[in-house]
Specification:
mainly alpha; Arc Repressor Mutant, subunit A; 2 domains; two-stranded antiparallel sheet; 11 helices; 5 strands; about 10% strand
Amino acid sequence: MNEKKDNKEKKDINIIKLEKGETVDLSKALGSSKRLNILKYTAEEELNLSEIAEKINSTPQAVYHHLQILEKSKLIRVVREEKIKNMDKTIKYYRSNFHPEAINLILWAPLDNLDFEQLQERVPLSKLPIERIARKISNVMFQDKTEYKTDILTKLLEGLINETHHSMQALKEEYGLELDEKLWNLMLLFSQLSTLNAFKKTMENEKLKKNFDDLVALLAEEMFEEVLIEKKEIE
């Protein structure tokens, strides 16, 4: 009996409060590849129902149903309405409120609704979201993408995330910061997500990516020179 009561009282961070008495299951809203694709495309540009249906290879009726769920979840919004000439109708254009990759990682719930243990489990970030981003970056970084290259990139990102975590912990101790534990874990989570997102944006920015490529080329050149020196010493 007590166990049932505890389960009932336990807050689910996937439930976000909307208007009074109304809730929506965020995990349900994001539990469809079609809806995730809608968020992806409307994050890039504003689209109407017909355009979305064409992009995700679906029917307008099905898209309308998905849009209702996403609107109710506050994940998408109408940015403008275009009136059809000689008709008492308008065409709605949609944009997603959050980038889908961020939705997969960040807890979009009020701080007071976050369960402390569930938040603690996400710091540092688990390998799954890091692998997901690594695969996306691999598509940009490598012309010939392989599992080995993706695995190396995942390990690099994992290292950056862990170093961010340890660095912030060290700074907290060094400056003697006294913060609420829940707030601190939330700060850690966002700092790690920021590191992950910054690396992804670097790879998507042509100028920054070129700088990164130049750095890698210089490192490869130095390694090659070291191998030649070692070879000469052996001879």
